[in-house]
Amino acid sequence: MKITLRIAIIFLYAALAFTACQENSTGTLGLSGKTEDHELSKEEAEILREQLLCRNWLFSEIVQSNGMDEQRLEVFRPILDATFSKAEFEFNQGGSFKFTLAGEVEEGTWHLNREGDKILTIEKETEEEHIITLVEVAQDKLVLTFGDDEVTLLLVPHAKP
């Protein structure tokens, strides 16, 4: 009975993966692979993580910057917030992405690493590779850490007009 139920759950998650970017998924998923309800298998966690990622995200706030102490971050927060204020991140099913910042658009491909805690991106024009740390993904928020200064951003879902 347990095996049949487990196979049914895996099949259901696999079926949902095909519509992951067309419908809003629910749930909260940290790096542990646990939802608010139960612990998921590695395959289930990966599918849910991708479902939650595949949408348009809008910058909300800078959570932290390991390159700056808290006092300095507070001084520069208005400038950083203004810089990122219209930043949009779009992760699409099939592995394409689009980042828009200050009118500049960067497109390319993305995929999660095996552990599901890093988003690997390759820019289309330059073929430059970037690694973004996936801190948390939920239906209502995405927390990512970027760059050498380890700037952590909070993003919220954004419906395109």
Written account of the structure:
It is a single chain. A hairpin with a 2-residue loop joins β4 (96-101) and β5. The N and C termini lie far apart (47 Å). α1 (2-17) packs parallel to α2 (42-53). This protein has two domains: 2-52, no CATH class; 56-157, Lipocalin (Beta Barrel), CATH 2.40.128.270. The protein has helices at 2-17, 42-53, 70-84, and strands at 28-29, 56-65, 88-91, 96-101, 104-112, 118-123, 129-138, 141-146, 151-157. The protein is an alpha+beta fold and 161 residues long. Mean pLDDT is 75; it is low at 1-35. It contains three helices and nine strands, in the order αβαβαβββββββ. The chain has an eight-stranded antiparallel β-barrel with strand order 2-3-4-5-6-7-8-9. The protein is globular.
Query: Numbering strands along the chain, what is their spatial order in the largest sheet?
Result: 2-3-4-5-6-7-8-9
- Count every helix, treating DSSP H or I runs of 4 or more residues as helices: 3
The geometry reads as globular
Structural class: alpha+beta
Kindly report the average pLDDT value: 75
Relative helix content: 25-40%
